[in-house]
Design goal:
The protein is of the alpha/beta class. The protein has a domain of 185 residues: Alpha-Beta Complex (Spore Coat Polysaccharide Biosynthesis Protein SpsA, Chain A). It is 31% helix and 22% strand. A hairpin with a 2-residue loop joins strand 2 and strand 3. It starts with a strand and ends with a helix. The relative contact order is 0.18.
């Protein structure tokens, strides 16, 4: 199995400015991510950056990086340009590892890369794990996915899916005022939601370079814009996404200053 890991990295971040360069135990976060990804079976690990500051930081730490444009609207668009800059063949498998995942499991990278060999008809591969709590099931920031019999995605949503039709609903009067405005929710004592074996999507992707080059030209989907989930563009255009289900939830990434402090403590413990 041959594949290349590409790590999109952009300097601008609303919640954590200059996030790729945030120091974690004496190394920029994007370097930590690249070194973690290098423990997978990837033949090559490359950072696709939007800033020379990122490429220079990578070079200083012996990490390969390419400078992409600042106009890209998504990480997938950035990786499409990186494929061209690196001269990757159309049939080359690329794994997109997010630049804020310094604890990403190398084994999970390998498993997502291998999906495209097992599902040659799929345009993309990704991962998911069982939802553990009712709070996560109802949380719109936790993206859920439902699969078909072949382990391919039917739909991704911020809504609780699959929703148990016969679940008991907490009456509006039992909810705090702020929550009541959003409508009824599952009763905390009702475990029927577990019967649907809901899955939480993990933001790790594999593609063939040819598909990455094609993706920016695909028309954005109404569903994608409604849910703010880029992967729905793939399904809307009739393409397939294979999903590897792992039983273990991955380590959390870095989105906020609090996340960064937590990750720094992990590396200090090492």
């Amino acid at each position: 199995m041959r594949f290349t890991v590409l790590i999109p990295a952009r300097l601008a971040s609303t919640r954590l400015p200059n996030k790729p360069l945030a120091d974690i135990g004496g190394q920029p976060m994007v370097v930590r991510v690249a070194r973690q990804a290098a423990q997978s079976a990837a033949q090559r690990v490359v950072v696709a950056a939007d800033s020379q500051a990122i490429t220079e930081a990578c070079k200083a730490h012996g990490v390969e990086a390419v400078l992409t444009g600042t106009h890209h609207l998504s990480g997938s668009d950035r990786l499409a340009q990186a494929c061209d800059l690196l001269g990757l063949a159309d049939d080359e498998v690329v794994v997109n590892v997010q630049g804020d995942e310094p604890l990403i499991a190398p084994a999970l990278i390998n498993q997502v890369a291998a999906l495209l060999n097992r599902h040659p008809q799929a345009s993309m591969g990704t991962a998911a794990h069982p939802v553990q709590t009712l709070a996560d099931f109802l949380n719109p920031n936790v993206v859920k996915v439902v699969l078909d019999a072949q382990g391919q995605a039917l739909y991704f949503s911020r809504a609780p899916i699959p929703y148990p039709r016969d679940a008991s609903l907490a009456p509006q009067t039992d909810l705090p005022t702020a929550a009541a405005a959003t409508g009824p929710t599952l009763n905390a004592t009702d475990a029927s939601w577990l019967k649907g074996q809901p899955l939480r999507h993990i933001g790790l992707y594999s593609y063939r370079a040819a598909f990455l080059r094609r993706f920016p030209a695909l028309q954005p989907a109404p569903l994608e814009l409604t849910e703010s989930l880029e992967q729905l563009r793939v399904l809307w255009h009739g393409l397939r996404i294979a999903v590897h289900v792992t039983q273990q939830a991955p380590a959390s990434g870095v989105d906020t200053p609090e996340d960064l402090a937590r990750i720094r403590r992990v590396f200090t413990a090492f």
